[in-house]
Automatic annotation (TrEMBL):
This is TetR/AcrR family transcriptional regulator. Keywords: DNA-binding, Transcription, Transcription regulation. InterPro entries: Homeodomain-like_sf, HTH-type_TetR-like_transc_reg, HTH_TetR. GO terms for molecular function: DNA-binding transcription factor activity; transcription cis-regulatory region binding. Transmembrane segments: none annotated.
Length: 197
């Protein structure tokens, strides 16, 4: 790999390269060499920007969580518009894009990575999935406040149930992701007891 060539937005290029490796080959193939080869840069570039590979992976996951945080604000803002099932279906489809689905096993099986993420975000639960559940819970609370779901709805149970059901639909890397109608059917079934409009 050439050295001495300035790379613009190095972190973003390395994150994008890691995501491509994850999508193509899965979490087991994600190494510093695979990332830098995919990014078309020398291996030392990664280590100039991150103390070690687990620090890089932690930043990759935290970047993904920040995207969920941004999505959460948009989802909360949609409360009172459209339908609850429609808003949740769109949100879950975005959360469970193929990169997020690939990141979950990476976090689950790398203890050092999980520890670093918890230092930065001590929220508990499985990173990415727990953040997605918090996003859904915030939205459901806003809809409850507007009277669009039953006031007695157990949001703390309903939100992770939606995330778990959604994750099961998307988790198989060997089959194409479900179509939007299959996801909508799951969402509609899970929230049926909430009396949503």
């Amino acid at each position: 790999m050439p050295t001495g060539v300035h790379i613009r937005d190095v972190r973003e290029q390395l994150f994008a390269a890691a995501e491509r490796v994850l999508l193509r080959e899965g979490p087991n193939a994600l190494t510093s060499r695979a990332v830098t080869t995919e990014a078309g840069c020398a291996k030392g570039v990664l280590h100039r920007h991150f103390p070690d590979f687990d620090a890089f992976l932690a930043e990759l996951v935290l970047d993904r969580i920040r995207r969920i945080d941004a999505q959460a604000a948009d989802l909360r803002a949609s409360a009172g518009t459209g339908t609850v099932a429609g808003n949740l279906t769109e949100a879950l489809a975005a959360v469970f894009d193929s990169v997020a689905v690939s990141i979950v096993p990476l976090v689950t099986f790398r203890d050092e990575l999980r520890a670093r993420i918890r230092e930065a975000r001590p929220a508990g639960g499985v990173p990415v999935l727990g953040d997605a559940a918090a996003m859904v819970a915030g939205y459901l609370a806003a809809e409850r406040d507007l009277g669009r779901i039953v006031a007695t709805t157990d949001i703390d149970t309903l939100a992770p149930t939606l995330i778990g059901a959604g994750h099961l639909l998307f988790a198989d890397r060997d089959t194409p992701p479900p179509d939007i109608d299959a996801l909508r059917k799951v969402v509609t079934t899970v929230i049926a007891g909430a009396g949503s409009r």
